[in-house]
Write a structure and sequence with these properties.
It holds the Pfam family adh_short. By secondary structure, the protein is an alpha/beta fold. The protein contains 25 helices and 20 strands.
Length: 695
C-alpha cells in the first residue's frame, strides 16, 4: 500500500480553510487519504479523530475531541463532518461500571460544541479514552483477513511484531472503549491496536504519523498474504457459463416470493470473481461468515451458493427456489435460536439473502435500492478477495453467531441504514421508450419521485441526453440511465432489455411511449410515411412488449406476483382527426394490442393498461416531438399562434384545463403502484373530451 501523504498537498489543503484550526484541517486531509483507499475502509467502515483545544464564547480554553460524524464518507469528508465534543467530560465517563447505548448517545448529543453537528461515531469513547492526539481506525482488508484465520494472535504477532497490541472481539460501545483503554495502558509503547474480527487503530502526535503507521502496518499484512499466495497452488474446476438473461430474472423473482418487496440486483463477473468461485474448496470458504460484523447489516452473515450450470430454465428456477427456501429457513433458525437462548424480544428482519454466488455467473447482490445493492457488492467483492488470499495461509475462522446477532440487531447499527419511509415504487425498475420527448420527461419525473430505477430509451441521442440531464437536476442522476434504442428494430430492443436485466436483474414497469406523427389526408398520404408510423407506433409497442415478456415470465416463475405495462395511447384512438390517419390508425392498433396483452399476460401477473392523453406541448424546454410536427399545421388551420393553440386545447375540454406531461406521469404511477386490481383499462388524461370518452 502506497503512502499518499504529501506535505505540499497538506499545506494547500489547509490553505483552503483559513478559518479552520490547523489540527482539524490536517485531520480532514488524512481522513480523505484513508477514505480513498477501498482496501482500508468501505462504506462507513472506519473513523478518525483529533484532540485539540478551542476557545469558548467566554474566552475559556477547552479540550475537545473532533471525531468523524455518522453519515459522512471519509473519502469526501469536510471539516464540518467532524463534530466537536467536550473531551474532559467524555474521559470522566470511564469510571462508570456500565453505560447503556441509549445513554451513551445522549451523552454525546448533550456534550457537543454545536447542537447542529451530525451524530458522533458510535466509537467516540474509544477515541476519547485513548491518550493519543490523532487516531485512525480502519477495517483494512489485510488486517481483518488475518484476524479471521485460525490462531490469529500468534499469526498477527509473527506478521506485525511486538509494537502492535492485540485485543479479542468486543461489541462496540462503552465495553470496547474501556477494553481499548486498558489494552493501551498495558502496552503503552504500542503503535497500533488490532481488534480481532474488527480492524485496526493507529496513533500519532501528528496526522502524518498516525496515517503513516496505518499504511506501514497494513502493508506488512498485505505483503505477508501476497507471499503466501505466491507459494500456494490452487486447483480450479471447469464451469460452463450460466446465462444472465435467464438466471437474473429467476433470482429476482425468487427474492420477491411471498409478496416480499422487489429487490434491485447488481451482477459482477470479473475474472477474479470467477476464479475464486471455481477454486477448490470455494463453496465452504466463501459461504462462511462476514469478515467483520459491521458488514452484517448490509450483507447478512452468509451468502447463498447456487449451482446452476447445465440446467434448463425450469430446473434452474426450481434450484433457485429450493436454495432460497433453505437459506430463509436457516436464517429463521438462527434468529429463533438466539432469541430463545437469551429470552429476548426482537422483531425478525427479512430472511432474504443479500449475496448470491453462482459459479459460471458470478457475484449477485440484492438491495432495496441500487445504492444498497452496490454497497453489498463492494463488500462482497472485497470479502471474496480477502478469503481467497487467506486460504493461502490457513483455514477461515468465523465469529460465533451470538456476536453476529448482537451486531445485526443492535439498534445503533440498524440506525446506519436510516429510517426513511419507503416510496411506493422503491426497488422497481422502469423502462420508458420515446425518452427524448416532453411526455417521457413527465413520466420519468413522477416515476422517479415514486422511487423507481429509471431507464429512458430513444434513438435520438441529443434529445435523450437533454431529458436525462433535466431529470438529473431534480433527482439522483445515478438512478437515470439513457438507452439508445430503436423500437422498430427488434435487435435494438432486445439489446436494451438485456442491458436492463444485466444492470438490475429484471424489469417491473414498461411504458411504451415512443411515437411519431405525420400530417396528410389519406389521398396525399405516402405509403412510406404510413408504414413508418406503423413501425414506430404499433410495431414498436409490439416489439418492446414481446422482448420484455420473457423477463416478466421468468420473474413470475419463481415467485414475483406482478409486472406493469402502461401504454401511452392517445385521445385519437376514440376521437381521430382528419389528416391524421397514419397516427390515429397506428395508435388504435397499439391500443388494441394492449388489450390482447392484458388477456395473455394476466396468467403471469402482468397488468396491461392504456393512457389516452390529449395534446401535450412541452415540459420545461423539452418540446413534444409529435407537436413539433403537427403544431405548425394546427396553427395554420386555425390561424393561431403557439399560445393561442394551447388555449384552444384548454378551452375544448370540459374542465378547461391544460394537460401536462406530469399528469400523464401521475397516471402511469397510478397504474404502476397496482393499488387497484385493474388490467385492460383505458384512463383518459385529457381534461374531459366528450368525443374521446372510452366506449
Amino acid at each position: 500500500m502506497i503512502n499518499q501523504y504529501s506535505h505540499r498537498e497538506a499545506t494547500a489543503f489547509a490553505d483552503r480553510y483559513p478559518d479552520i484550526a490547523a489540527d482539524l484541517c490536517l485531520r480532514t486531509y488524512t481522513s480523505q487519504l484513508i477514505g480513498r483507499e477501498p482496501s482500508l475502509v468501505l462504506h462507513g467502515g472506519g473513523n478518525t479523530s483529533v484532540k485539540t483545544t478551542i476557545t469558548t464564547l467566554l474566552g475559556d480554553e477547552l479540550d475537545v475531541l473532533y471525531i468523524k460524524g455518522s453519515g459522512w464518507d471519509l473519502a469526501t469528508i469536510e471539516p464540518q463532518g467532524f463534530p466537536a465534543l467536550d473531551l474532559d467530560y467524555l474521559r470522566r465517563l470511564r469510571v462508570l461500571e456500565r453505560l447503556s447505548d441509549e445513554e451513551m448517545v445522549n451523552q454525546f448529543r448533550t456534550h457537543l460544541m454545536d447542537s447542529t453537528s451530525p451524530n458522533p461515531s458510535i466509537e467516540t469513547l474509544v477515541h476519547a479514552f485513548l491518550p493519543h492526539k490523532f487516531i485512525d481506525h480502519t477495517h483494512a482488508d489485510a488486517i481483518v483477513t488475518l484476524t479471521n484465520l485460525s490462531d490469529p494472535e500468534a499469526r498477527l504477532r509473527e506478521v506485525l511484531g511486538n509494537d502492535t497490541a492485540i485485543l479479542g472481539w468486543i461489541m462496540p460501545g462503552f465495553p470496547l472503549a474501556q477494553a481499548m483503554a486498558d489494552c493501551q495502558e498495558q502496552h503503552p509503547d504500542a503503535r497500533s491496536i488490532v481488534l480481532l474480527h474488527h480492524g485496526i487503530f493507529t496513533f500519532g502526535d501528528t496526522a502524518d504519523l498516525a496515517y503513516s503507521q496505518m499504511i506501514e502496518t497494513v502493508s506488512r499484512a498485505e505483503d505477508y498474504l501476497d507471499c503466501c499466495r505466491k507459494t500456494t497452488t490452487v486447483l480450479r474446476r471447469q464451469v460452463d457459463p450460466v446465462s444472465p438473461q435467464t438466471a437474473l430474472p429467476l433470482l429476482r423473482g425468487a427474492l420477491a416470493r411471498d409478496n416480499a418487496p422487489p429487490f434491485i440486483l447488481e451482477w459482477r463477473n470479473n475474472q477474479e470473481i470467477q476464479s475464486a468461485l471455481t477454486a477448490d474448496g470455494a463453496r465452504e470458504r466463501l459461504t462462511s461468515g462476514v469478515l467483520t460484523p459491521d458488514h452484517v447489516i448490509r450483507t447478512k452473515n452468509r451468502p447463498l451458493w447456487l449451482e446452476l450450470n447445465n440446467l434448463d430454465e425450469t430446473a434452474m428456477g426450481q434450484t433457485i427456489q429450493e436454495g432460497m427456501a433453505t437459506f430463509e429457513q436457516a436464517y429463521h433458525d438462527y434468529f429463533q435460536g438466539q432469541v430463545n437462548k437469551r429470552k429476548l424480544h426482537r422483531i425478525e428482519l427479512d430472511r432474504k439473502p443479500r449475496i448470491i454466488l453462482v459459479p459460471g455467473l458470478g457475484l449477485i447482490t440484492a438491495g432495496t435500492s441500487q445504492a444498497a445493492a452496490g454497497i453489498a457488492a463492494d463488500i462482497a467483492e472485497h470479502t471474496i478477495r480477502a478469503k481467497t488470499l487467506g486460504a493461502g495461509v490457513g483455514p477461515y475462522q468465523e465469529l460465533d453467531e451470538g456476536a453476529i446477532f448482537d451486531m445485526e440487531y443492535w439498534s445503533l447499527e440498524q440506525a446506519k441504514l436510516g429510517k426513511k419511509p419507503s416510496l411506493p415504487l422503491t426497488g422497481r425498475t422502469a423502462l420508458v421508450t420515446g425518452g427524448g420527448g416532453a411526455i417521457a420527461c413527465g413520466i420519468g419525473r413522477q416515476l422517479l419521485a415514486a422511487g423507481v430505477r429509471l431507464y429512458l430509451s430513444d434513438r435520438n441521442q441529443e434529445r435523450l441526453d437533454r431529458v436525462c440531464d433535466l431529470l438529473g437536476q431534480e433527482f439522483n442522476p445515478a438512478l437515470i440511465t439513457p438507452l439508445i434504442m430503436d423500437v422498430s428494430d427488434i435487435n435494438s430492443v432486445k439489446q436494451g432489455i438485456n442491458r436492463i436485466v444485466n444492470d438490475c436483474g429484471g424489469l417491473d414497469i414498461l411504458v411504451p411511449n415512443a411515437g411519431i406523427a405525420h400530417v396528410a389526408r389519406l389521398a396525399e398520404l405516402d405509403e412510406k410515411d404510413f408504414r413508418q408510423a406503423i413501425d414506430v407506433n404499433l410495431l414498436g409497442v409490439f416489439q418492446v412488449i414481446k422482448a420484455a415478456e420473457p423477463v416478466f415470465r421468468r420473474q413470475h416463475a419463481t415467485g414475483m406476483k406482478s409486472g406493469q405495462i402502461i401504454i401511452n395511447s392517445s385521445k385519437n384512438v376514440f376521437a381521430p382527426g382528419a389528416a391524421f390517419g397514419a397516427y390515429s390508425t397506428s395508435k388504435a392498433g397499439a391500443h388494441q394490442l394492449g388489450k390482447i396483452a392484458a388477456l395473455e399476460l394476466a396468467e403471469i401477473g402482468v397488468r396491461v393498461n392504456m393512457i389516452n392523453a390529449d395534446a401535450i406541448f412541452s415540459d420545461h424546454d423539452i418540446s413534444s416531438g409529435l407537436w413539433d410536427v403537427i403544431g405548425p399545421d394546427r396553427m395554420r388551420s386555425r390561424n393561431l399562434d403557439p399560445e393561442g393553440l394551447r388555449d384552444y386545447y384548454r378551452q375544448r375540454n370540459l374542465l378547461k384545463t391544460e394537460v401536462t406531461s406530469n399528469h400523464v406521469g401521475n397516471a402511469v404511477v397510478f397504474f404502476a403502484t397496482g393499488l387497484t386490481p385493474t388490467t385492460g383499462a383505458t384512463l383518459p388524461v385529457d381534461g374531459g373530451v366528450a368525443d374521446a370518452f372510452p366506449r
